[in-house]
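Appendix B. Raw example, untouched.
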Amino acid sequence: MSFGQGGPSWGPGDPQRNSDHDNNASGRWQAPGGQVPGGGTPGGTPDWAALADESAARGRRKKLLLIGGGVLATAVVGALVAAVVVAAGHGSDTSGKNLPSPETLPSKSGEALPSFTPKAPAPPPNPKDFISSSKKDTAPLSAATLFPGATIAVGDHTYAKAGTHRTTACSSVTQGALGSVLVNNGCGQVIRATFSKGGIAVTIGVAVFDTEAQARKAMKQSAGGVASLNSGVPTFCRNGSVCRRTANAYGRYAYFTVGGFTSGKNVTQSDANVFTAGDDVAEFTFRRIVARGQAQASAAAAAPAR
C-alpha cells in the first residue's frame, strides 16, 4: 500500500518498513529531516497548540488577501464610475452629441393649459344713488310712505302724528324767503307732517327735487322756514311767536322743521324739550329717506340680470 506517488511501500518483509517501525514505534508520521509538524520531536507527541496557531495564521493571511483584493476591486470600480460622471459632465455621450438640458426637454403635452381670469362679482348698489336722482328714485312717494303709522318713536321718545299734507305748490307752505328758494332750485313738491307731545308740536316739511345738488343748494340758501301744519293740534308758531327752526338735506330731499308750544309761548334757549322734539322728528325723517334708498337698492340687487 502506498500514500502518493513515489512514497514508501509498506509490504511484508520490507526491511525499510521494519526499520521505520522501530524508529517510530508510535506509528505517527514524521516529516522529512526528522521534524514533527507542530514543533514536536521525532517519535514524540505533536504540539497541538502550535498546530492550531499555524492554522489560525494561515486563515488570517487568507482573509487579509481577500480583503485587500476587495478594496482594490472597489477602488477600480469607483474610478471607472468617476470617469464616466466626469465625461457626462462635459456634455459628451457615446454618440458624440451634447445631452439636452432639463429646460430644453419637451413637456408631456404640447397643448397649452387653459387659463381662466376670475371675474369679481359686481358690487352691491349704493342706496344713496337711488335717492340722489329722480331717474333712479322711482318708488311710490307720499305722506303715507314717508310717515306711516299713527306715532313715531325715536329712542325712548314717542310722538303722536297729528296730520299730514302734500302739495306741488312749494312756496305756498313756507314762511319768509324759503318759498322763493325752493322754487328757484326746482322744488317739485313739499310733504308736511305734524307730531306732538306734552304741549309741544313740530311740523316737518320735505321738499323734493330732481337732483341732490338742487336739494343741497336749497338747504344752504334757506331763509325763513316751513309753515306749521295746524291739523289735529292748536295753532302754533304763527302770529309772530318765536319758534325753533332747522334745515337739512340728504339725497334729493331737503327737509325743514318748525317747533314750539301749542300755547303760543315763545321758545327760549332753555326749552330743551322743544329742541329735543325737533331733533327727533328730523332724525326720524332722515331714517325714512335712507330706508327708501335701501329698499330700492335691495330690489335692484335681487332683480335678474339683463
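End of appendix B.
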